[in-house]
Structures are given as structure tokens and as C-alpha cells.
Write a structure and sequence with these properties.
single chain, alpha+beta, Chemotaxis protein chec, six-stranded antiparallel beta sheet, two-stranded antiparallel ribbon, 5 helices, about 35% helix
């Protein structure tokens, strides 16, 4: 399970180090990065991505316009990414642009996946976050 909140800088080649605690949750050296529903990136273990993608394909018929739109969104923005020997991943220009990522990022755990946010966007999101109170 992915937990926590971590701040990191992109290096000059567009790479970011994944927190050690998150790297320990990954299985293998490949993961899937894709566009999030807010201005962020989602990171999945490959097996989890394949399971969720299969569920999405089974749940939405190709004949349904909303189902086609979701599939296009999910799969067109997804990339397989290699975790290097020191725990860095390369963020593509396309994904960085989508999420508005420049230099300082926040990597958060979100249970079955992690998210990469531009620090300014994350702070703004938290400021506007509304959640049920007990």
C-alpha cells in the first residue's frame, strides 16, 4: 500500500526519485504512469494497472460513448516507466505538461497507487479540499 507525502525536486533531465518507502512497495523495476483526474500523475504497479484496466474494459462497453471516452483517456495517457538502480523515474514531457510539473513535486500515497503533483497545485488542492467531518 502506498502511504505518505514526500517532497522531491526534478533533476535537470526530468527525473524524480521515488521515496524509499514507496520503492519497497513496487514489485519489479517497471511501473505505469498516467494522467490523473486532477492535474497530477498516477503511478501504479504493473499488475495493479493491468487488473484495473481489465475491470474498466469489462465495465464499459465499446458501444457506449462514455466508455469509449474513459478508455481513450486512460490508455492514451499511460506510459510504462523504468525505475533506475537509484530509484528514479523519468517523467515524459507530455505528462509533465499535463500535470503542470516544473521543478518541485509532491509524491503522495493513495492506497493502491501513488500520485505526483506539482507542489503549487498540491498546496492549492489541499487548501480547497472539502471532506466529510464526523
Amino acid at each position: 500500500m502506498f502511504l505518505g507525502e514526500y517532497r522531491h525536486m526534478l533533476d535537470d533531465r526530468g527525473r524524480v526519485s521515488l521515496p524509499k518507502k514507496m520503492r519497497s512497495v513496487l514489485e519489479g523495476e517497471r511501473l505505469i504512469l498516467t494522467r490523473g483526474f486532477e492535474p497530477c500523475l498516477l503511478g501504479y504497479r504493473r499488475d495493479d494497472w493491468e487488473r484495473d484496466a481489465t475491470k474498466e474494459m469489462q465495465a464499459s462497453a465499446i458501444t457506449d460513448p462514455a466508455g469509449r471516452a474513459m478508455r481513450r483517456y486512460m490508455f492514451s495517457g499511460a506510459e510504462e516507466v523504468l525505475v533506475d538502480r537509484v530509484g528514479r523515474i523519468l517523467l515524459s514531457g507530455q505528462l509533465k505538461t499535463y500535470a503542470g510539473i516544473s521543478e518541485q513535486v509532491v509524491i503522495i500515497g493513495a492506497g493502491d497507487h501513488f500520485e505526483i503533483w506539482d507542489e503549487k497545485s498540491w498546496k492549492e488542492y489541499l487548501t480547497n479540499l472539502k471532506y466529510p467531518r464526523a
